[in-house]
Every structure is written in C-alpha cells, then in structure tokens.
Design brief:
about 160 residues; alpha+beta; three-stranded antiparallel β-sheet; 3 strands; about 55% helix
Length: about 160
C-alpha cells in the first residue's frame, strides 16, 4: 500500500515538474499561478525578449518580475519560478492520480453483491477457482495478505 502512494507521489511530482518547466516557457503568463508563493503582496509580471542570433534561428527569453506594492521591481530567478510552479502543480496532479488509482480499484471489484467469503462452492473444482480469485484480490490490493491467508485457512477448514 505504501509503494502505491509512493508511486502516485512520484508520478505526480514528475508531471508537476514537467508542467512547471514546459508550460511557463510556452505560456509565460501561466507562471502567475505561482505568484502567491513568489510575490506575496505584490504582482507578478513577465517580460519577453526576442533574439535572432543567426539567420533562421529565433531565441525568446522570458524573465519574471515581482512588482511590490511600493513600486519596487525585482527579478525572480527561473529556478525559483519553476520550483514554485512545481509546488503549485503537485497537489492537483497528485489528487488526479489518486482518484484515477482509486477508480481502477473500484472497477476490479466483482459485479455481484455477494461478498467473496459467502459465495457458494461446488465440488467441481471451485476451491481452486476461489483460491485464484482470492489471490487476484490480494494482488490487486483489495484484500491484505493477512486476510488472504485467513480466508484460505477458512476454506481449507470447510472442506
């Protein structure tokens, strides 16, 4: 269970990092989402400069500034801006991934309303089928390994 949440957090952090690096580069105004972290009490602005270092090549540089309430303007480092955008993007990415993982778990539940432990068994080899079903539920994280062992013991005792 701990590995699943670690995986979700890792993927969310990766998605937030990629979004924080790429989105402000393509849409500089989007970096203003990180303004509460970078420029509390002020306004975050962006400035773009276009360079043509050689024919057929264009370079656009974006700079981010915090304009304080008194009018003072200070430049924000690109690394700090990317870090703040990552922080702002991590929580939504984490929540979306957690909801997606939770939904996939719900889709793995059997369609019947009968709990796994109360399904009838017949003598035609359903013990093996039931054991395989319990193993799939354990592997999917629907039941713990301890619950699996207990249910397996209960099945063996009922033979």
């Amino acid at each position: 269970m701990m590995i699943k949440w670690g995986l979700i957090a890792g993927v969310a952090l990766f998605a937030a990092l990629m979004g924080a690096a790429v989105i402000p580069a393509l849409f500089p105004q989007s970096a203003a989402l990180a303004a509460p972290l970078l420029c509390a009490g002020g306004e975050m602005t962006t400035e773009s400069q276009t360079f043509y270092p050689e024919p057929g090549r264009t370079v656009i540089a974006h700079s981010f500034f915090c304009v304080e309430a008194g009018g003072a303007r200070r430049e924000l480092s690109s690394l700090l801006t990317v870090a703040a955008c990552t922080g702002m993007g991590f929580l939504p990415a984490f929540l979306v991934l957690a909801l997606m993982m939770g939904r996939s778990k719900l889709e793995m539940l059997p369609d019947t309303a009968t709990p796994l432990s109360r399904q009838p068994e017949s003598a035609d080899g359903s013990f093996n089928a039931r054991l395989a079903e319990l193993a799939r539920a354990r592997d999917a994280g629907l039941i713990s390994p301890e619950e699996f062992e207990q249910k397996k013991k209960d099945m063996l005792n009922s033979l």
